[in-house]
Amino acid sequence: MPSGSKYRILHSISSLSLSGTNTDGVIIDITKTNDPSTRGVVASFKHATTPDITTGIELAVKKVLEASGVDPGSERILGLTIGTTHFINAVVQLDSARLAKVAVIRLAAPYTTECPSFIDFPQDLKDILNGHTAIIHGGLQIDGRTINDVQETEVLEQAKIIREKGLKNVVLVGIYSPLDVEGKHEYKARDILRRELGDGVNIICSCDVGHVGFVERENASILNASIMSFAQRTIRGYRRAMKRLGLSCPLYLTQNDGTLTTAARAARLPIKTFSSGATNSMRGASYLAGVDLKNSHIDGSDGFNGGAERKRSQSMIVVDVGGTTTDVGVLLPSGFPRQAAAFIEVAGVRTNFAMPDVHSIGLGGGSRVRVLENGRVTVGPDSVGHHLTRDSIVFGGSQLTATDITAHAGANASAVAGGTTIGDPSRVAHVSDDVVDKAKKSIQRLLETVVDRMKTSPEDCDLLLVGGGSIIAPATLKGVKSIIIPKYHEVANAVGAAIASVSGEVDTIEILHGKSLSEALERIKRQAVEGAVQMGADPETARVVDVTVLPIQYVTNQATRIIVRAVGELGQGQERAVLADLEPIIHNPTPRDRIDYTTYRPNIVGKEWILSETDLFFIMEGCGILGTGGGGSPYPAYLICRQILRDGCSIRIIDHTSLNDDDVVARGGFMGSPSVGSERIRSGEHLRMAGLELAKYCGITKFSATLCDEIGGSNGMQSLQMTKYYGVPALDGDLMGRAYPMLNQVLPAVYNRPNALIPCSLNDGSGNTVLLTTVKNEHFVESIMRVVTTEMGSSAALCPPPLALRDARDFGVPRSQSQAWRMGRAVAICRQMNDMKGIAKAILKLQNGVCLFVGKIVDVSREVRAGFTWGQVRIARLRADELEDTEVNDDTPSFSEDAQEFGADATMLIPFQNENLCAYMENPDGCRKVVASVPDLITILDSQSGSHLGTPEYSYGLRVTVIALAGHPLWRSENGLKVGGPSAFGLDHAFVPLGEYIEPRSVIAEYGA
Question: Quick one: three-class SS letters along 651-697?
Answer without folding.
Answer: CEEECHHHCCCCCEEEECEEEECHHHHCCCCCCHHHHHHHHHHHHHH
